[in-house]
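Example 4.3 (complexes with small molecules)
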Amino acid sequence: VEASIPEPQRDAWKKFQAKPFVSKDDFEKEVVRHVETTLARSMFNCDETAAYAAASLAFRDRLITEWNRTQQRQTFADTKRVYYLSLEFLMGRALDNAMLNVGLKNVAKEGLSELGFRIEDIINQEHDAALGNGGLGRLAACFLDSMASLNFPAWGYGLRYKYGIFKQEIVDGYQVEVPDYWLDFNPWEFPRHDIVVDVQFYGGVRKYQDEVGKNVAVWEGGEIVKATAYDVPIPGFDTPTTNNMRLWSSKAASGEFDFQKFNSGDYESSVADQQRAETISAVLYPNDNLDRGKELRLKQQYFWVAASLYDIVRRFKKSKRAWSEFPDQIAIQLNDTHPTLAIVELQRILIDMEGLDWDEAWTIVTNTFGYTNHTVLPEALEKWSVPLFQNLLPRHLQIIYDINMFFLQSVERKFPGDRDMLARVSIIEESQPKMVRMAFLAIVGSHKVNGVAELHSDLIKTTIFKDFVKIFGPDKFTNVTNGITPRRWLHQANPRLSELIASKTGGLGFLKDLNVLNELEKFADDKAFKKEWAEIKYANKVRLAKYIKSTTGVTVNPAALFDIQVKRIHEYKRQQLNIFGVIHRYLTIKAMTPEQRKKLAPRVSIFGGKAAPGYWMAKTIIHLINNVGAVVNKDPDVGDLLKVIFLEDYNVSKAEIITPASDVSEHISTAGTEASGTSNMKFVLNGGLIIGTCDGANIEITREIGENNIFLFGNLAEDVEDLRHTHNYGSHTLDPDLVKVFDLIKSNAFGDAGAFGALTGSIEDHGDYYLVSDDFHSYIQTQTLVDEAYKNQEEWITKTILSVARMGFFSSDRCINEYAEMIWNVEPLPVEKGSGLGKEE
Ligand code: Z16
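Answer. The structure with Z16 bound is encoded below.
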């Protein structure tokens, strides 16, 4: 029931309406109030945790006031909304972001200082919101920031995992996983105990004909789980627009526990039911680019999709519009195939619950959805076994069969008699057991399908979705190259660089229109500017060096070349190529005379990233990196010339320290495997150069910044397949330098070589699927070019300035505008500035 205050009483409400603070005094007042009332503490027992809590609550109150206004404004304007469905939102910390986006960080800094705290210490109290694995989840977070900053009426829908991505500890060189229980204190969410949706599982379908002879299907029985909404405000940068991220949490339908069972003495099983329901939103699956086909994962997907669609449909129904207007009011973007069930669920709601005809409903469905593909790796493409589906979601399986039947009939009309085509494109794979191919379902049920970088979008059209291009025509497929938000990845992570850029480009405007960075080109040879630029890079390296010292105990020289590879550990991303290259460098140094050593640029090789807990090869790579570090870092022959660091527990807040400190970063996936990559963009935007393959967004980065400013190497995507063939036929001879590296490993130089047998064996004996040996020579040569180029600091700095100046294209604002125009057909809802927005400049 909507309870609106009657007109005569509204004056009182307006008079006492919450007013977001703007001044330092008002901020301090809010902090003290929260310490003394919300937290029940005082100035005599206010530690940094309490100060963090109070400062966050002060900002949260402020955000929620703007959130309310934004939602009212959007509801009143009644324009089209975007719903971004993502099983992952890798948000990181919220306080720093909130302070910067509302333009009150300096106010907060001074206020906190007057209250006895340093703002950095307070910011560091916050636990990352780590509800994602890697690129896909962080992309969703950048998109939320851009949608709010550009004033798009847009919501994110996801799951409120109790445990985010695990915390990584390194024990004796091995990865150990520790659960990430992050909800202990989370001031950024608002539980909406009034927004609860029943979600059904299992049961059966009863079909009958009604009085007028219409076929009716009723899904009945089974069990109900309750979804409760938790809202997280998403503030735009320099705008009052504050959008919503709604996360669902699962609970048993009977509340605390089943009282009937309880009263009949079955206490344990009533608690067990409760626990089983809560399991659904308990934990994020820790796999990046891998589908394991687990039932609980399918349950998560349906739980989240059903609650979100119920919510969206409920909101639409309040407008009393005709169903045919649904796609004019609502765009739903599917972040990968994870939410593909939404297509089936909307069709089910329209035909089973709302009584629409199949065709009418299907037109609405396909006009509503867009699908983003993020990978071509076969092991990552989702498939669900039909028996599992049949048991969990019997009615949905029927609808999928119907969708498939109508689809295959249309294919048959277009390609009469092409049985192979029908088998290839069928949503149901005729295997044992049969499988539902989710990507095919997503394509058939959406009006647009996009890849995330040009090469990737071309690849999906020519490989995995080739037949669908023939069936639907090429216009259904498009590209939206990924981007990153410059607010977090420049302004927040690298405040000094942001300040320098602002001072030369006329303020912070570049953060809203990143192409303004172009103006930096004229400083590429400016002596004074270059000096400041280099000083900032050095300071960022000093900061990272301190962090390395405090976390690993290893001393690194901030004047050395910092070579960084941080991302999920995966064979296709080829951290093994990097560490083999490091071992090669170690061998080279050992063989050098002291004179030769003097001429070599000192280097720090920095790694970071998590391996999926069940991914043994990835864990072996981590183990090797750590063992190499243990040997190299204490070898007196090597000294400063080479240090090897593995940073534990890489996450968003650590990325904010690491990214600004690179001289070069590595993006060295086997060509054709990394759909886009986004950390490549972050590093270049922060004045680092790239060593990379012709893969994903590296190609477009090269086009934008110029090929003189990037170190590209390795085989091209178009040649990968043939190369793999040559490995399998005839003898596969390894690169001689790689053989020396393997010989050293096998001599137990880095501990018992048995531990690394699977890794070296995958290359020597098992076909070298990721072409490590094929690319090794080219990689080593390019690293030598990096060494040489780094010696000429003047040229190096110019390259980094020119690169930053040309990175405008990679703002996630550009992505969102492309999605809005090409896929969603939505307009921003402009809002006048003023009313309560904190303004510092
Ligand atoms: C993921 O992070 C990505 C793809 C995928 O299928 C699953 C997950 Cl969890 C990544 C891609 O690997 C990366 O290239 C891309 O930049 C990112 O998604 C965002 O599109």
